[in-house]
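Example record for the data management plan.
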Amino acid sequence: MMKTIIRNILFPFHELFKGHNTMSYLRELEKSQHFNKSQIYELQSEKLRDLIAFAYENVPYYKKLFKLNGIACEDIRSPSDLKKLPFLTKGIIRKEIETLKSKSARNLEKSNTGGSTGSPMIFYIGKKRISYDVAAKLRATRWWGVDIGDPEIVVWGSPVELTKQDRIRQFRDRIFRTKLLSAFDMTEETMLEYLRIIKKFRPLHIFGYPSSIYIISKYAKKKNIRLDNIGVKVIFCTAEKLYDHQKSLISEVFNTRIANGYGGRDSGFIAHECPEALGMHITAESIIVEIVDNTGDPLPPGQKGEIVVTHLDTHDFPFIRYKTGDIGVLSEKACPCGRGLPVLKKIEGRTTDFIVTPDGKIMHGLSLIYVLREIPGIREFKIIQEKPDRFVVNIVKNSIFRDESEVLIRDGFNKRIGVETKIVFNYPPKIEVDRSGKFRYVVSNVHHPSVNVR
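Corresponding structural encoding:
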């Protein structure tokens, strides 16, 4: 009864009160997900033409950009025409933040990226975009049999959410049966409290950073605290790469399935996995995804490159051909679930999650992660590449870690990179998460040359 009241009365009223059209957009998305490929492409084309025309007339940055590049609105008729436009980058947004606002925009919400590379990016989002992103998230959760009003645990660390934990937010969460656990505060004491809350709350689904949920799962297993019998139906992981070892342990501890999601504050709710698990369905009604090579040319499905997104519902602060800095691959296959939404086959990680070798090749950070995972006595670690042949390795060790393990790590790095590397070892008591609350195993501060990721 409570779930029905939340889903049909309280939540729709809450969204309308905030000026959002979430529920009407959700109904649209639940119909359009069954469109065929041609119908989705036509829908994208229609919305793209509207966005381009609006941006030209109302957004100073784009009016100037089009004139400087000799582009007319009529030149951009469909997603295939996007390659005629220059990319939008974080640097451009930082520099042109005021000219990127629509002249007609009202009540914009200020937002920012987490700043995992040390330099957060501020931008603005309008109510239409928020509504579509929330609707897309709700549609994806319904694929897994959970809905508005089902008890939910959220493991999150974003400063935006955490600064809103006032009485109003707490009251709202209580009404909607949502419980927030801070990913910023993952000590042994807080994790014991988190486990107590989870067992008492008995969530039907959990949403959050895979690294944080993994830490909770690992701690539960260490303390022999059972979570496999509380009825969690699905765990939604998002905002950072979900590694196989994380997925395996989380699934084991909670005895449930894991749904991988991909998106960001800047880029929107891009894609989410369905139970068929072929890949992640792109929210194609709102977002056009391109995969481009190092020269900026679009790549066909099956080839790996940087993910570029155009969010079709960002009129107030347009994101058109926005370079995400993430590496991914589009699928050539349709999903057996029957939905016509295109499929993002996999996400390799951020460009800063890759290692640049001295001879100019780019390697996935997993190549070095596996070296450390094979060494006994390592509880946590983080690898920072300062130069092509220089790394800082931070290790939280336990009693079985041996000094000679440093030699094994050096040998492993040298073997995978192909040259002798310089490694500085640090042994902090804990590895701090990024300011966003996320955790990244590998961070490269080396500029990526124009070569293909391998």
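Summary line stored alongside the record: The CA atoms of residues 98 and 329 lie 33 Å apart.
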